[in-house]
Design a protein that fits this description.
By secondary structure, this protein is mainly alpha-helical. The protein has one domain. The radius of gyration is 20 Å and the shape is globular. The chain starts with 5 loop residues before the first helix and ends in an 11-residue tail after the last strand. The C terminus is likely disordered.
């Protein structure tokens, strides 16, 4: 297709064959997951921390697709040497719907914020407070990791904003003004929408609008699932499985999507919204492991 052929591009995204291709890819991923998980397991205790981190992230994704009784991440936890590895383990629990409540008391703010991303803590005021606190310095949140965990498809702050917006209502807009100010100062011309769109919707009382089909990127490795994983404390952390048959209405909204809208489509034009006393015009265009487990 020639560049600039917008009509042809739209036709591609509206072609029913595209859904067939996506579904076939997801079906094949379900079938391959047990084999892939078996290949990844030995890497959870690899000597190289970067390999361990990626193995944890991959295990978190694959465990949701297979009929496995549990996957033990305690070996990776015992060997965790830095924040990046620790966060990857916590985020693996987050993706599977595991209980991360105990990590809200962790001494590292990055670990606390990662734990707060769990949808199981959506109604927890401590978790919401951690998200707000982290976004009072969004640039610092983006710099938390040297090797950003695979959970984050882009800047860390984008995921924090999404979680905070999903747990807030229009009545919270005034309380979120400090967060909005910091994000407005950090946002650039290509990140304005991801940074501020959700908060502006809260301020305006607008509802979320489903994306146009042609704005969907190819499917990610995160296939539909419903969670949750169970965890045990003490000697280790274990993750229980969910089966494909359990995927349904109870599935996590984030995990139930076969693709994520990334990067977000740009909205051209100027928008004005008022949040409290602020009117803003925006143009959208084992060392570490010993302390990881509370």
């Amino acid at each position: 297709m020639a560049d600039g052929d917008a009509e042809g591009e739209e036709e591609i995204w509206e072609d029913p064959l595209l859904d067939t291709v996506f579904h076939a890819a997801l079906r094949d991923l379900w079938r391959a997951a047990p084999t892939l998980l078996g290949a990844v397991r030995p890497l959870l205790t690899h000597a190289d921390g970067r390999v361990r981190q990626r193995a944890v992230t991959t295990t978190g994704a694959l465990c949701r697709l297979v009929e496995e009784p549990e996957v033990d991440l305690s070996g990776a936890a015992d060997l965790a040497e830095n924040r990046d590895e620790g966060a990857a383990i916590v985020l693996a629990l987050v993706e599977g719907g595991g209980d991360t409540t105990s990590f809200l008391a962790h001494p590292d703010q990055a670990i606390r914020a990662c734990a707060a991303l769990s949808e199981g803590l959506a109604g927890d005021p401590v978790a919401v407070g951690e998200l707000r606190a982290a976004l009072l310095d969004p640039a610092a949140a983006d710099a938390w990791f040297r090797d950003r965990p695979g959970y984050f498809p882009g800047h860390v702050r984008f995921s924090l904003v999404d979680a905070l917006v999903s747990r807030s209502g229009s009545e919270d807009a005034a309380d979120l003004l400090p967060v909005f100010r910091e994000l407005a100062a950090t946002a650039g011309p290509f990140s304005c929408e991801a940074d501020l769109r959700g908060l502006l919707r809260l301020a305006l009382g607008a509802r979320r609008v489903p994306p146009h089909p042609r704005s969907r990127p190819p499917p990610s490795s995160s296939a539909p699932t419903s969670g949750p994983w169970s965890t045990t404390t003490g000697s280790g952390t274990r993750v229980s499985r969910t089966s494909p048959s359990s995927c349904g209405a109870s599935a996590s909204p984030r995990l139930a999507r076969p693709w994520r809208l990334w990067p977000p489509p740009l909205i051209t034009g100027a928008h004005r919204a008022s949040m409290g006393d602020l009117s803003v015009k925006v143009r959208f265009g084992g060392e570490y492991g010993d302390h990881l487990w509370p």
